[in-house]
Structure formats: C-alpha cells, structure tokens
Amino acid sequence: MLEVTNLHAGYGPFAVLHGLNLTVPPGEIVALLGANGAGKTTLNRALSGLIRPTAGTITFDGTDITAARHDSIVRAGLIHVPEGRKIFPNLTVRDNLLLGAYLRGRPNRTRNLARVLDIFPRLAERLTQLAGSMSGGEQQMLAIGRGLMAEPRLLILDEPSLGLSPILTEELFALIARLNADGLAILLVEQNVMQSLAIAHRASVIEHGGIALAGPAAELADDPGLKTAYLGLT
Amino acid sequence: MTEIVIAGLVNGILIGGVYALVALGLTLIYGVLHIVNFAHGSLLMVAMFAAWLLAEKAGLSPYAALPVVSLGMFALGWALYRFVIGRVSRGEDRAILLATLGVAVVLDNLFLTIFGGDTRQIETDLTFAMWEIGPLLLSVPKLIAFVVSLALATALWAFMARTDTGRAIRAVAKEPEGARLMGIRPDRIFALAYGIGIACLGAAACLLLPSFFVSPHVGNVFVLVAFTIVVLGGMGSFPGAVVGGLLIGVTESLGGLVLGESLGPIGISLVFIAVLLFRPTGLFGAAR
C-alpha cells in the first residue's frame, strides 16, 4: 500500500533521511521505532507532503506521490495525525472534526461524523466545547477522530501516546488495534516499544535516517539486542 | 441641554456605524489572520475613488455600485495578497508589515499623481436627506451605512461560524500545519480571507461616499480608528467591531460636545486605555 524507496529528505542543508526504505502492506500495522532525532518525524512530514524529499520515491497505492502536494495526498487517503496533535484550539470540537473532512463531500461528512462519535463517545459529549480547553487525552482522541473524518486508507499516527497516562495509553493501543481490525492500514510511530510490537504486524527500527532493523513484530519483540542496540534504552 | 446630548449621542451612533463598517474588514484581516494591514486606509481610498468614478463618469449611484465595487475590491485584495504580500512576506510578521506599508505608499502616491490632492464629493438625492424623528434630525446616508454595517457584521459572523471556508480561515490563523494535514491550503485561505476583508472596504466606500469626501488622503481619517476598534472590540470579534465602532463614535461625538472640537478626540484614547485596563482581551475578546 505504501512503498518508500531510498528516501532522502531534510531541512535546507540539513539532511535527516539517508536512503530510507519502508513498506506498509494493506491492512497491516507497521510500527516505526526509534530514538529521538532518528528521523521519524521527518519521514512523516515527507510522506504527507509538508517537506519535499531530495531523492527517492514514495508510492501510495501504486501512484507516485513523491512530489505531490499535501492536499492531493490527503485526497488520496494518506492521513497523518501529527505529533503534538495540532488540533485547532480556538475551534469547537465539532468544527475540528468537520474540518477533518474538508476535502470530502457533505453527505460523507455527516456519515463520518456519526462514525467518529460512535468510536469516541467522549467527543460527542463535548461537541460545542473549545478544543483547546480539553484534557490531553481528549485532545489526542480529537486528533485521531479528525484524522478518521478524512477517510484514511492509511493512517500515520505520530507518537499518539505521548503525554498520556498508562491507562489512557492502554485504551489508545486497544483502539488502534480495533481500527486496524476494520481493515485500516496504520503506520504507528512510537516510543512505547513493547506495546507497539504487541499490536503491530511488522516493525522497523529507524536509526540515523535509515532503517537499521526490520521484520515481523513478534520476532523483533524477542530480539534481545533491539532495545540496547537501537533504541538507546537499557 | 438634554436635547443636544441626545442629538450628539445619536449622531455618534451613526458615525460609529460608519467606523464599524471600515473596521469589519480589518477585524478579519488583522483580528483573525493577524496581518497588520497598513494598506487598509489606502485600499479604502481606492474603493472610494472607484465608487466616485462610477458615479461621476457612469452616473451610477453609489448604492447601485456597491456590488460591483465590492467584487472589484475582492479581486484586488486577493491579487495583492497572492502576488505581493504573500510572496514578499513568506508568512513572516515583520515582512508582512513592510509589505502592506509598501502597498500603502505606492497606492497613496499613485492616486495623488493621477487625481491630485483635491477633495472631491458627489451629490446624490440622498446627500442632504434628513429623517426627522421628534426633535432629532437623522442623516439618511449615515442611517443606511449604519444599518448595512449591522447586516454585514451579521453576515460575516455567520460566514466565519457556519461555512467550511470560515472554519478553515479560523483554523489556518491558529494552526497552519494542522490545517495543511487536513488538505487545507493556507496560502489560498489567506488570499481569500484578505480578499473578503478588502471587499468589505468596497461596501464601506460606497456607503461613505454620499456623505463624505474623497481624496488620496481620505484613508488616514479612518485607519487609526479602525485599528483601535478592532483591538477594543476584541481581536477577531465581529459583534465586538460593531460595538467598538459605536463606542468610539459616541465617545468622539460627546467628547467634542463637552471638551470642544480640538480636545474632543482625546476621549477615544481614554476609552481605549480604560477598556484595555479592565478587559485586556477587548470587549468581546476570548480569553487566551
């Protein structure tokens, strides 16, 4: 579904990704693990068209989207729920969700909203509240809900558990597994290694702007060197 | 005595309606998008000249010309943002400030060269029309301007609250990257919103023309007042712009009555300071 080949990207003269390769097959969760500064966020920004890669190709659903503009990438169904959520704090929960479906038609929007509110009953209770006044956990739900409004075929979740309590984190991972069970492909970028590997089909470890280790999630979970060698954890 | 005060009050409210009209576009541009639009006064001047030319050369009444002038100003504002302000500034505040100031200098001098420094006026059937209510004399053009500014404020408020584009404008102003991830193009939204703000000036110009003069410097009369109103009303609030406009109009009118013509305008600054002292976010501003 998503095929990243030999990707180079960065900010001006600062190259961050050096020939990165990554595949997300349809219907699977791929966990992307790596320490801070390894290039995870840069990869996501390149995938969603916020920065333009300097070399390599990104193919989504058989179409080359390497040089595509951010709005055509959204229209194609590659949706990025960013680190730090980036919800609209000055808008109500309802307006945030409606903007998620900005590029979709009105009938779809109504249907998507009903579905998202079904998944997140908490958001249904807070539709008229300003998004910025909600708790961190609720804001994360809103960010994912807004992403789902856009009718993703592949959802990129960048550090969704950041700043959440252990209980909320557990709920979040259960939700991600549930979304995937409905057929949604997910690229899960996380620092929560063991919980991510538990729900993922495959995993890749990113280091110094390239993939250092990749394989089925179950194998990587058993790899004794994973934590110490690549993630800087002890 | 009371009659004079009441007359001053009513006159202030009517003038305030005109001020609100000029401030509405700025509320969108400066209050919501945080573009410090130094060209606001100059673009009002351009719109007034457009309405004046249509009246003088084509015999079109300013009220009939309103849709045309508004549409033309929208196109001008959109193009200015798309090709000048947006391109020069690349979203940087300092650069936006200089870009809009540059546009103002160019427009002011361009019109000074073409039309000279004279003030011009048109006379319509309504210019001196008065509406008598008991002891009060209401200027009809000002009354029309007042009513339209209320209607325009309501329309803008509904547009911002209820439409996709309105939501996108508010979203882009606060969180452009989040907006891009939803497929919204901030550059387009900014140009569109700037165009709409400038279109408001087109409407304002047509409503001003029957009771006001035109000259290349006419913008200066309004621009400082408009900035004051936007901040006073609460950045980005359309009801705030109307109430702020009325407050400034009444203050100016009564200030002139009590303190005399030359000392009167000091009241505006006093009200401004007092409001910001007790409500730093402005009258209708959201807490931030």
Description of the molecule:
The complex is a heterodimer of chains A (234) and B (288). With 234 residues, chain A is an alpha/beta fold. Chain A has 2 domains: 2-77 and 152-230, Rossmann fold (3-Layer(aba) Sandwich), CATH 3.40.50.300; 90-151, no CATH class. Chain A has helices at 40-47, 70-76, 93-100, 106-119, 121-125, 136-149, 166-181, 193-199, 217-222, 225-230, and strands at 2-11, 14-24, 29-33, 55-60, 63-64, 78-81, 154-158, 185-190, 202-207, 210-216. In chain A, α3 (93-100) runs parallel beside α6 and α4 (106-119) runs antiparallel to α6 (136-149). The longest helix of chain A is centred in the last third of the chain and has 16 residues, at 166-181. The two termini of chain A are 34 Å apart. Chain B has 288 residues and is mainly alpha-helical. Chain B has one domain: ABC transporter involved in vitamin B12 uptake, BtuC (Orthogonal Bundle), CATH 1.10.3470. Helices cover 74% and strands 3% of the residues of chain B. Chain B contains 11 helices and 2 strands. Chain B has helices spanning 2-32, 40-58, 62-89, 93-115, 140-162, 164-174, 176-180, 186-208, 218-233, 238-259, 266-278, and strands at 130-133, 136-139. A two-stranded antiparallel sheet of chain B has the order 1-2. Chain B is globular and about 60 Å long. The mean pLDDT of chain B is 88. Chain A binds chain B through residues 48, 50, 69-71, 74-75, 79-82, 85-91, 95, 98-100, 102-103, 146, 150, and chain B through 164, 167-168, 170-171, 173-175, 177-185, 286.
- Which structural class do the helices and strands of chain A define? alpha/beta
| Largest sheet: number of strands, sense, barrel closure of chain A | 6 strands, mixed
Enumerate how many helices of chain A there are, as a single number.
Answer: 10
Number of DSSP-assigned strands of chain B: 2
Coarse morphology of chain B: globular
Q: Determine the mean pLDDT of chain A.
A: 91
Quantity of strands of chain A, as a count: 10
